[in-house]
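Entry for the shared binder. Reason: the reviewer on the internal report wants the predicted structure included alongside the sequence.
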Amino acid sequence: MEHIFSLVCAIDCTLFITLSETMYKKQHVTIHDIARELNVSASTVSRALQDHPRISESTREAVKKTASRLNYQPNVMASSLRRGKSKTVGVIVPRINRNFFANVIGGMEELLATSGYHLIICQTKEKLENEVAAIQTLINARVDAVLLSISMETTRNDYMHILTERGIRLFYFDRVPAGTKNGSVVVDDHLGAYLSVKHLLGQGYRKILHVSGSEHINIYRSRKEGYLQAMHEAGMDVPQAWILHRDLVQEGGESAFLTGMKMKKNPDAFFCAGDFAALGIMRAAKRAGISIPGNLGVSGFANEPFTAFLEPSLTTVDQRGSEMGRMVAEMFLKCVEEDSVSSTCRQTILKPQLIIRDSSLLNK
C-alpha cells in the first residue's frame, strides 16, 4: 500500500471514502483474527505487537509470526483516531487538472509523508457550493487540517468558521480570501505581472491589453495592479477598455483577441493572467494570419507544461508550485509541533520567475 492514501474528489468525497472503507474492511486482517488463530485475547495480541513487557517473549514471537503469515497491517487511521488525531490533511483545489495545482499537491505530499500524514484531495471546479460541500466532507472525515485555494465563486469566508469550531486548522495557498488571519503561502503575483509587462515594453510593444480574471480573487487583482504599474511607469495611459475580463480558458482568450481586433487601433501585445487564455489568443491570431511575435506579442502566467512546446513558445511566469505546497505543509506541521490549534501565521510570499520565450521576443 502506498504511504500516501489520496482520495480525489470532484464534489463530495463521502461516497469514495465509504466505498474505500467497505473494501478495506473486507480485506483487512485485524488483531481479532490473530487472537482467534492463537486462542488468546485481542488485548494480548495488541500488547504483543507493541512489545509490552508483561507479555512473554514466546507469546510475542508467536503473535508476530502469525501476523506476518496473515499479512496483518496495522489500522493506522483507527489508532490515530483513538489518540484524537486522524493523521489526514484535506486539500481543496479549484481544478486538479492544472499543472500548478498538481505541483502544489506534490510538494505537500513530499513533506507530509515524512511525518506520516495522508491526503484527502477535493476539487471545487470553481463552484462555491462544491467548496462548501468539500469542507463538510472533510469535517466528516475528521481531518487534522484543511489546506485551501478558494474557487472563483468564493466572495466570503464566513462558512470557514466551522473548521475552527471543530478544532481543525485552516491554511490558504495561492488564492486567499480578503481579510483572513489564517496562515497562507502565495507567489508575488504583482511582481510577476510587473516583470512580464516591463519585458513587453522593453521589446517595443506599446498597446498592451490585459486579459484579467475575476478581481475579487486576490491573485488576479494583484496581476492587474502589476500590469498597471509597469504601464504607468512607462508613461502609458491605460483606458478601461484595455482591461478585458474573461474566464481564463482558451475560449476566453479567443474572445479577448476578437475584442482587441475590433478596436480602432489594434493592440500589439496581450498580457494574460493565465496561460490558457494566452493559448486562445495565439490560436485565434494564427487563424487570422497575424504573426507572433512580429505583429503581436503574447505573455501568459502559470508556466503550464504546454507553454514550452507551442510554436512559438509562450513567455510566462512560473509560480513555484512545488515550493508553495511544501511551505504551506510546513506551516501546518509547525502548528502541530507547537501543539497550537491556532493557524494564525504571517503570509509567506514567494518570488516568481519570468520565463522569456519566443512569443514576446521582437529583439533576439
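Summary line for the report: DSSP finds 13 helices and 13 strands in the chain.
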